Automatic annotation (TrEMBL):
Name of this protein: DUF305 domain-containing protein
Regions crossing the membrane: 7-25, 31-52, 59-76
Keyword Transmembrane: yes
Organism: Marivita geojedonensis
DUF305 domain boundaries: 84-140
Length: 153
C-alpha cells in the first residue's frame, strides 16, 4: 500500500506542469516521493500500531521507513545522483509550473501581470534551451569546457 501510494505521489507531482511534453522522469522527484512515502509509512503505522502486535516487525518498519526518509532527504538535498541531463529533466517540469501558474493566475495589478508575463517568456525560453541541450548531449556528449553557452562555440 505504501509503495503504491509513493508511486502515485510521484505521478501527482506532475499534475501542475503546463504541458505534457514538459514531463520527464526526474530523480529529484523520485527521491522526494521516497521520503514522502517513508514518512507516510511512519504516520500510518503510528496511528494503527494497536492493530499490529508484532513488535519486531513494527520496529523494522519504523527503522526502514526512517532510513528511507533520511536517504530520500539526503539525496534531494545533496543532488549527488544528479548530472546534467537529470538536472534538466527535473528543471523543465519546475519551469513548466512557473508557466502554468503565471499564465493562469487571476492577476489584476498591471505590474504583477507584467512580471508574470516576463516569467512566462523567460521560463519558456529556458525550457527550449534545456530541451536543445538534452538533445545535443544525447547526440554529441558533453560540450568542451569553455564552449559558449548560447552558440555552442
Amino acid at each position: 500500500m505504501i509503495l503504491t501510494s509513493t508511486v502515485v505521489m510521484y505521478g501527482l507531482m506532475y499534475l501542475n506542469t503546463y504541458a505534457l511534453d514538459h514531463v520527464f522522469f526526474s530523480q529529484t522527484r523520485m527521491w522526494m516521493a521516497l521520503y514522502m512515502g517513508a514518512m507516510m509509512a511512519v504516520v500510518m503505522l503510528a496511528f494503527m500500531l494497536g492493530m499490529y502486535s508484532n513488535r519486531k516487525a513494527n520496529i523494522a518498519i519504523f527503522a526502514g521507513a526512517l532510513f528511507a526518509f533520511a536517504l530520500g532527504v539526503g539525496l534531494v538535498r545533496s543532488q549527488t545522483t544528479i548530472g546534467d541531463v537529470a538536472w534538466m529533466k527535473a528543471m523543465i517540469p519546475h519551469h513548466s509550473i512557473a508557466v502554468l501558474t503565471s499564465e493562469r493566475a487571476n492577476l489584476s495589478d498591471p505590474r504583477v501581470r507584467a512580471l508574470a508575463d516576463a516569467i512566462i517568456e523567460t521560463q519558456r525560453s529556458e525550457i527550449a534551451e534545456m530541451e536543445s541541450y538534452m538533445a545535443d548531449i544525447k547526440a554529441n556528449g558533453d560540450a568542451a569546457p569553455g564552449t559558449d553557452r548560447a552558440t555552442g562555440n
